Amino acid sequence: MKKIDPWGRARRPAEPLACGSAGRLALPPPTSVPVRFPTHDFAGKVCRHWHHCLTFFLLLLVLSPRSFSAEPASDPALTALAQKAAGESSPAARAKARGEFISALRSPELSIDARLHHAWTAVLLAETDDERRAILKIAAAIPDARARMLVAAFRDYPYLRKDYASADKALAQLLAPGAATTDAKGKRIPPREIFGPNPFDTPALFDKWEHDGFSGRWADKDGLLAVEVVLYPQNNYKARVLRRGDTPLPLVGFAQPDGSLLLLGPGERISDGRNWIVSARLPADGRSAFSIQLNTYGTSLPLALDRAPLGKVFPEKRPADAVVLLDATTGLRHFRQANGSDARWLELPGGVIEIDPVAGSIFSRREFGDARIYLEFRHALNPGSLGARRGNSGVYVMNTYEVQLVDSFGEEPDEVSEGAVYHIAIPAAYAVGAPLEWQSMEIEFRAPRFDAAGNKTAGARMTVWQNGIKIHDDIEVPNPTAASAATGRKLKDKQPPQPLMLQNHGNRVQFRNIWVAPLPGS
Description:
The protein has nine helices and 24 strands. It is of the alpha+beta class. The strands form four sheets. It has a nine-stranded mixed barrel with strand order 1-6-5-4-3-2-9-8-7. Strands 10, 12, 13, 15, 18, 21, 22 and 24 form an eight-stranded antiparallel β-sheet that branches. Helix 2 runs antiparallel to helix 3, helix 2 packs parallel to helix 4 (112-125) and helix 4 packs antiparallel against helix 5. The protein is globular, with a radius of gyration of 24 Å. It has a domain at 315-517: Sandwich (Jelly Rolls). The longest helix has 15 residues, at 161-175. The protein has helices spanning 41-49, 76-87, 91-104, 112-125, 129-139, 147-152, 161-175, 191-195, 485-489, and strands spanning 56-61, 216-220, 225-232, 236-243, 249-255, 261-266, 277-281, 289-296, 299-307, 323-326, 335-336, 346-348, 352-354, 362-368, 371-379, 393-397, 401-405, 439-446, 449-450, 456-458, 460-466, 469-477, 498-502, 509-517.
């Protein structure tokens, strides 16, 4: 089941899954010295209880001037109201500010750019279905094709399906009144030809290989705390504070006139009602570290945070008997298009290939059954799209069983997030790197078994590591993967051997260092 709000709250799986959800997010074990709490009473109490007592978050990241994209128009009064809605410690005060903020989005004085920018802020702030319905109606009245992605942000909310369908239809009529959806032969006309380039219908046009300066994962050396910052459409940001063993705490980001990013969000209150503030500052002369402090009654306990990418690669793992499908010497000669012609993806320096969004998926010329598969990949940073329109691809083992590749950095694992066996198994651990980071996926695959008559006697099995973290442990894959779990259950497994397929799903994803080796003991 896809997430139904930007924070993954209120997820309601439609049916049981083969692999349970990971539950609370836990940070990877620290690689440096363990946490040592101060011995004096006050500081010791803070360090032992800080994760239960955050009432209000203030994170200020100061960066050198940004060149990633032009600042969208914003209204100062609306921005101030949105910051109040994000950071008030009182739930009632936040709800009041959200209502005022969403109502103000209807003002005829707002430019299209400002309305889009603040409407995306509202998506991050909204906590009720009534608030989301109001945002949907506002989005459906924005005469700009970029609003298609904004409306589509609500397509997977279970209780808003009718509202989404109505808004989608209204926006289509607004953008292309009376436009035909099929040609003279009854063939469906692609939406991109009706609405033109936009983040929903042509997401690859918004994929970028340059960093925005803010997004990514930051952590202290002892693993006590991490902050993940995610770029959202129209220069909005969301983030979450991760505390070992506790539920992530959400934040909303606001780009500041001085080039900094302000992150705000309500936290938690301890029994004595004290207010705690967390602040962070990234020096203007570098983008490698910032400090974070717990402040109360004038006392500070600093924690140094550094960039802490989860993306890890292991080129040294390639065994001598591996079949190399891609490295710095091969180009695309070991892959083909579906019709058998030469693969037509882009070849880049260093043995890197990149999806050409109009070239289709590619298949290995060699075929495999039981196998150990390794590949490295990275997603572009997409500042306009969201969800399945962001970094989407997939690795199809035996051209049948998809291990999902999609930019789900900063999201709780689900059955369609990165590393999922699509609609079958949720990753058992969070191991997703940020966009632009090179990541690795290693799969130990045991093909399904068949008797002499062609009847399946045992299902396929997989163990999967992403970035060195085990996310599936010898799980059964009972049937092929498909666009839905129900459709997959109707499909029949293929007999080995079959090719490895790399999916083209309309985004620019890059790959390198792909090899397949015999499965030990097979």
